[in-house]
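Justification of resources, computational component.

The compute hours requested in this renewal are based largely on the per-chain cost of generating structure records like the one below. Each record pairs the submitted sequence with a full structure-token output. That output is archived, and it is also reused by downstream analysis tasks.
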Amino acid sequence: MSREFAEEFTEEMDLRPSEEEVERVKEPCLMSMAGKSRGVLFRLREGEVVVGRSAEKADIVLEERGVSRAHARLTCGPDGVVTLLDLDSTNGTYVNGKKVTSVLLADGDTINFGPEATVRLDYQDTVEQKLLEHLYKNATRDGLTGVLNKKSFLERLEEQFAVTTRHGQRVCLAMIDADNFKRINDTYGHPAGDAVLKALARRVVSLVRKADLVGRYGGEEFIILIRETDVDGARVLLDRIRAAVEEMPFVVPAEGGERPISMTISVGVAGLDVSAGIEESLERADQALYRAKNSGRNQVVIHGEA
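The structure output for this chain reads:
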């Protein structure tokens, strides 16, 4: 990417670096080149980060097949020099095709964590980094709420389905719908409705685990992929989210300033069923949501339960 091309976007997208960033000029980052996180840019700050498959053990999570829970450690020095240490991973760490245990990385090095996860070390200036992050966010995130857009969520779901098929990992899908949302739009206007959806998305994201995924499915409907959890565990998490939403004030623009309003959510849950497939699993979660809304709202309903 040319410097000139990046500069064309600087003012429009607020990509101008701070004084601190100008002094730093170049900083290391990892660009994911393949797999589920393809296109994601991971900035490396001074200190240590662990790369792995487990959100509990790793700072940079790569979910591709063959990545160990804690696969490797990257250490970035104050001068931006990055060293890599393999953490006795099952499938090894490779730099430019050569298996390594500990190595000093150079600009442009290609790193493989196992057979499928590929990243490249790049030293980029701040404008280039911000532009890449902006483009990636626009392609994968909902413009209003900042959670995954529907297309990106479904792509991640397909990848998760493949993992579930191979390893039998327990996964649940949850459909969330804002109760009586049309009434909010009709009473306070669409800016108020937008404010409610943004606040709802923030609250949901703050309560799910790092490994879970949140997306906007359409309108006032959101979807969550809950990993390594059965429906009973999902019920506990989702009822906590439901109660938190019920208790929180949603501040919306109103005549003469702002005002707090209340809102509830209905939730439908289904397990990701390998034998049924993705579409059927989504349909089951949607059916459970329909039951939740038609039996009083403000509740969590599990598909298949009486």
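The longest strand covers residues 117-125. DSSP finds eight helices and 18 strands in the chain.
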